[in-house]
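Researcher: I'm preparing a figure for a lab meeting and need a structural model of a single chain. I don't have an experimental structure, so a prediction will have to do for now. The sequence is pasted below. Please return the structure as tokens so I can convert it later.
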Amino acid sequence: MLRVLLISLLIALCPLSAAYAHPHVYIDVTLEVTVDGTGISSIWQNWLFVGDYGKQLARDGDTNGDGEFDTRETDTLVRSYLLPLASSDYCTVINVDGHDYFAQSVGQPEASVVNGRLSLSFTMPVTIPAAGNTRVAVRVYDETRYMDFAMRDYAILKVGGGVEVQAEDAFDFERYSVATRSPALYLSIRMTRHHDSVQGDAAAGAPAELGGLEPAGFVGGLAGDNPFASAGSSENPFYGSQ
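Model: Understood. Here is the structure written out token by token.
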């Protein structure tokens, strides 16, 4: 009897840990980092929901059954699945020279059908100036482990001169989870701004001003706000496949 009571107590104290112990939703992410003449001006993400669950979401969102999302269906999907993740900062941490930040907002949210599966995309408008050598890392992960993210692709788009940028490291959750204990993807880039391209205050050594970012505190809280937590399970034995 005592053993039964102890087991019951453990179940009562840890309801979320069991529910979120392994991923149910698999997402392949494409990242695009736009660099202008001063530094990073935006970070764009595309989330492709893979496996049968991605098909289910596409079918549920395509209410008129025409194989694509019209304006009303897109708005419904964005409100139902993307915007609720604002309380969890869209599962994205932006590290600038060793300091973690969250994006203050997202813009241009879109939903589409890709290979029969739901695809969500959004832009994080940020200002991250390059001052000498600046290192920026983008981490995407769900601390609860309910959602699993993989790197499908990434790109660095240059729309102006004056800043050199290169990817220093880009890898998926298998390596990064050693540090975070959460499935994650990770993209690290280095920006170098040449002295002869720096003008005004920046040339005088004034600190660079970040825009569209807020300092990160505790990364988490998704367990209570995850819009996918009650939506079902996705079986995807081939991680990262379409």
